[in-house]
From TrEMBL:
It comes from Nocardia callitridis. The lineage of its organism: Bacteria, Bacillati, Actinomycetota, Actinomycetes, Mycobacteriales. InterPro entries: CodB, Pur-cyt_permease. The gene is cytX. It is found in: Membrane. It holds the Pfam family Transp_cyt_pur. The chain crosses the membrane at residues 32-50, 62-85, 106-130, 142-161, 170-191, 211-232, 244-270, 276-295, 323-341, 347-368, 380-400, 426-448. PANTHER family: CYTOSINE PERMEASE, CYTOSINE TRANSPORTER CODB. Gene3D superfamilies: Hydantoin permease. This is Hydroxymethylpyrimidine transporter CytX. Signal peptide: none annotated.
Length: 455
């Protein structure tokens, strides 16, 4: 793809029919994904790994949780890297790529689902920032913190590629310093026995219930997978496919493990008071370094809002992404002012069940059948077979791990009974649904001729 050197070519295009400049270096992308891997979610949501059934049971130990986090993140990082490649190779954003997988019109279904989950993630991020700021400053107007985070998020989305470069130049160093500082302080404070679970009832030995291990792994993997349907929105600006894969899969996976393990350590050190971020604020200079985490969290909401805008452009190609970003920034801010985090794990489970098998279909078709050549134009023909493969993967995921999503979960629990299906401890919903969707997609790709060619 040919680009010019003028200033406008160095920023993301405003509409879908404009070419994407290839201006992000390996270090730009690595810093971006590494920062996304360190999130306040890792601290506030660490218990979802230790008690993945969300039923107040002892769950698994901290040591088992660390193993689950490493395994889940390694697999999730590989998936994220694979999702990054098509964007770098074609220059197309994530939802536009799905025109080649499902067809132009059928791509609208995953696009709408992606818009919904990104709005949810962006809203959650503002809630987390507001909660963390309130704890950091010992109170204050929660609404003001949320609005401030919403304004920062919206400003970053106006110049997305410039924001990525700012992360590399200024933010990453502070985040690395904060991580090192807290690790040193936590080790100096003395960690408790990692073979116990620090929850209200969690006092069993390592591996108290290995039947929950793969559920915990899926919980960790779901965090990585949440970025799969947006990866191409950023790697489409990569200078090469190899750097896109390495930066997305490697840098993100590394820092997610570091961040979540730090969150598990903080959970182990937590006492009855002090709030969920108490262990960070009670160490020497803790408030200063935790402030870096709070400010940096805006890159998470920025990424979600920008990708939401780009996803909407798959439905409305000529709408200016800046107008979309401003509208979305206002929307998530308003919603965040009245939202809580009570069903965080259920939200993650639903994300995994939708986008893990979708990635399986994409990998099988893009890499094995199409060899990287898809028709992503507005005339891309519908491919119902690929939709069927996706749905089969979703069914496999839900039968193994129905999650915790109210009526939706109740239906799949009953479906287990109808199918006389018993979940085994070794079953991973993410891995098996990915493989099922990929195998079905590869089989359909061989048996059913397609009319798609690269556009």
């Amino acid at each position: 793809m040919t680009t010019t050197d003028d200033s406008t070519s160095k920023e993301a295009p405003l509409t879908l029919d404009q070419p994407a400049p290839r201006v992000l270096s390996f270090w730009d992308q690595s810093a971006f994904w590494a920062n996304l891997g360190v999130s306040l979610f890792a601290f506030s949501g660490a218990y979802t790994v230790l008690a993945p059934n969300n039923e107040g049971a002892p769950g698994i130990s901290i040591a088992a949780g660390i193993v689950a986090m490493i395994v889940g993140t390694a697999v999730g990082g590989l998936m994220l890297g694979l999702a990054a490649v098509p964007g770098a190779r074609t220059g197309q954003p994530a939802m536009v790529l799905l025109r080649g997988l499902f067809g132009a019109r059928l791509s609208y279904l995953p696009t709408v689902l992606n818009i919904a989950q990104l709005i949810g993630w962006g809203t959650f991020e503002l809630v987390v920032i507001g909660d963390a700021a309130e704890e950091l400053f010992h109170g204050g107007p929660h609404w003001l913190y949320v609005i401030a985070a919403g304004v920062i998020t919206t400003v970053l989305t106006i110049w997305p590629l410039g924001s990525v470069r700012i992360l590399r130049r200024f933010v990453t160093v502070g985040v690395v310093a904060a991580l090192l500082w807290f690790y040193v302080q936590f080790f100096r404070a003395g960690l408790p026995d990692l073979t116990t679970n620090p929850g209200p009832e969690g006092n069993g030995p390592f591996g108290v219930d290995w039947g929950l291990f793969w559920i915990a792994t899926d919980a960790a993997l779901a965090v990585s997978v949440s970025w799969v349907p947006v990866a191409a929105d950023y790697t489409r600006h990569s200078r090469s496919t190899a750097t896109a894969f390495t930066a997305a899969g490697g840098a993100y996976g590394l820092t997610q493990v570091i961040g979540y393990v730090l969150g598990l350590f903080a959970l182990a050190l937590a006492t009855g008071g002090g709030g969920q971020y108490g262990p960070f604020l009670h160490v020497t200079l803790g408030a200063l370094f935790f402030f870096i985490f709070v400010i940096r969290e805006a890159d998470q909401s920025f990424a979600n809002v920008y990708s939401t805008a780009v996803s909407i452009q798959n439905l409305a190609p000529r709408v200016d992404r800046r107008l979309l970003s401003i509208g979305l920034g206002v929307l998530i801010t308003v919603v965040a002012l009245g939202l809580n985090m009570e069903n965080y794990f259920g939200f993650l489970g639903l994300i995994g069940s939708v986008f893990v098998p979708l990635l399986g279909v994409l990998v099988a078709d893009f890499f094995l059948r199409a060899k990287g050549r898809w028709n992503t134009g507005a005339d891309a023909p519908s491919r119902w077979g690929m939709v069927g493969a996706w749905l089969i993967g979703l069914v496999v995921y839900q039968l193994i791990n129905p999650g915790d999503a109210g009526v939706w979960t109740d239906f799949w629990v009953r479906a287990q009974g109808w199918a006389h299906f018993t979940v085994q401890p070794w079953m991973s919903a993410s891995l098996l649904s990915f493989l099922a969707a990929a195998v079905v997609a590869a089989t359909i790709g061989r048996l059913v001729p397609t009319r798609d060619t690269q556009r």
